[in-house]
Amino acid sequence: MTAAMNIRQTAQSIGLAVFAFLLRCFLWIVNILWYIIREIVCGVFRMVINVMVFIIFLIAIFGFFLWLLTL
């Protein structure tokens, strides 16, 4: 009975170690994918903000030139 209990306990320990390893691998992959998605989203927001600033800059320059022509 003791040998069977030891084998069962060893099998449970090995199973738990394998499960913990697989869980860590899964979380590692999810973390990498989350980082990639986050960088893409931040890059898109950065581009949108830069385009908006550029459009406002063009409007301001155009308005400034029109103001200079009216002097």
From TrEMBL:
Assigned keywords, A-Z: Membrane, Transmembrane, Transmembrane helix
Q: Which residues cross the membrane?
A: 14-36, 48-69
Give the highest taxon in the source lineage: Bacteria
Q: What is this protein called?
A: MATE efflux family protein
